[in-house]
Amino acid sequence: MKNFGLLAFSLITIALPVQALEPLDAASVAQGAPLYQSHCADCHGAQLEGEANWRLRKPDGSLPAPPHDESGHTWHHGDSLLFDYTKLGGEEALRRMGITGVVSGMPAFGTLLSDREIQSILTYIKSHWSEEVRRLQAERTRAEDGS
């Protein structure tokens, strides 16, 4: 089940509306930085470093918060999937993809943050990636969106 969930997570997206933002858009990065610190840094780290041992399951079956820097897998996923996972929370996003029985510690932020704020947080995260990683992630976004 673990491998299936991770494979499906990397291949399937939910069709929620999301507008991809330019990764280095200064206004989005500026808006996203304090939002990231307020809503994400407690779990994903102030420097996007993630929790220790983020690949090892916790006793409840969930995985620790992964890094959002280049050492993690965030950049392996397209914009729509990242947006949906943040807005809906991990378990709901997975459930909507048809994946059940996976425990996720990722809460839903859709009632706390606007779509634009979520997009700005994602832009802030992307601003920490190298040009090459941003290019690869943009390719993933296009592939997942079918464009």
Q: How would you describe what is shown here?
A:
Mean pLDDT is 87; it is low at 1-17. This protein has helices at residues 2-11, 26-39, 41-44, 79-88, 90-96, 115-126, 131-145. It has 7 helices and no strands. It has a single domain (2-15, 23-145), classed as Cytochrome c-like domain (Cytochrome Bc1 Complex, Chain D, domain 2, Orthogonal Bundle), CATH 1.10.760. With 147 residues, it is mainly alpha-helical.
Keywords:
147 residues; mainly alpha; Cytochrome Bc1 Complex, Chain D, domain 2; 7 helices; 49% helix; globular
**Name of the CATH architecture:** Orthogonal Bundle
- Supply the CATH superfamily name: Cytochrome c-like domain
What is the chain-wise order of helices and strands? HHHHHHH
What is the count of β-strands? 0
Overall shape: it is globular
Return the structural class: mainly alpha
Rounded to the nearest angstrom, the radius of gyration is: 14 Å
CATH topology: Cytochrome Bc1 Complex, Chain D, domain 2
Task: State the gist of this model.
By secondary structure, this protein is mainly alpha-helical. It has helices spanning 2-11, 26-39, 41-44, 79-88, 90-96, 115-126, 131-145. It has a single domain, classed as Cytochrome c-like domain (Cytochrome Bc1 Complex, Chain D, domain 2, Orthogonal Bundle).
